[in-house]
């Protein structure tokens, strides 16, 4: 599986999978957001969902590395879900 990095409006690039993704479909793979569409073509809701997934992944990384406690992780994830209107 090959990856390429795309430039986008976000501060950090999104790794894009060059195969196996349908147009407009995105998923988490190895804690990276993968997509086969350009950032500019995504709707506002899709961009917000990708941001949510990225922030959720970052919280998990902090927990795994001992930077935050389980209680801090759970509270931050709950607050993030409420603020962004996510149910995931």
Domain count, please report it: 1
Strand proportion, as a percent range, falls in 15-25%
Tally of individual helices: 2
Portion of residues within helices: 40-55%
Order of helices and strands: EEEEHH
Separation, N- and C-terminal Cα atoms: 27 Å
Which class of secondary structure composition applies to the elements?
Answer: alpha+beta
Number of strands: 4
State the shape. elongated
Rg, Å, rounded? 14 Å
Largest sheet: 2 strands, antiparallel
Biggest sheet, spatial arrangement of strands: 1-2
Oligomerization: single chain
Query: What is the averaged pLDDT score?
Result: 74
Explain what you see.
The chain has helices at 44-64, 70-84; strands spanning 3-6, 14-17, 26-29, 32-35. The protein is an alpha+beta fold. The chain has one domain (3-84). Strands 1-2 form a two-stranded antiparallel sheet. A two-stranded antiparallel sheet has the order 3-4. Residues 1-25 have low confidence and may be disordered.
């Amino acid at each position: 599986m090959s990856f390429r990095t795309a430039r986008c409006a976000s501060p950090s690039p999104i790794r894009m999978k060059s195969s196996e993704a349908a147009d407009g479909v995105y998923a988490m793979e190895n804690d990276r957001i993968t997509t086969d569409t350009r950032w500019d073509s995504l709707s506002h809701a899709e961009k917000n969902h990708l941001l949510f997934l990225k922030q959720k992944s970052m919280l998990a990384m902090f927990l795994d590395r001992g930077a935050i406690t389980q209680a801090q992780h759970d509270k931050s994830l709950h607050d993030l879900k409420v603020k962004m209107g996510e149910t995931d």
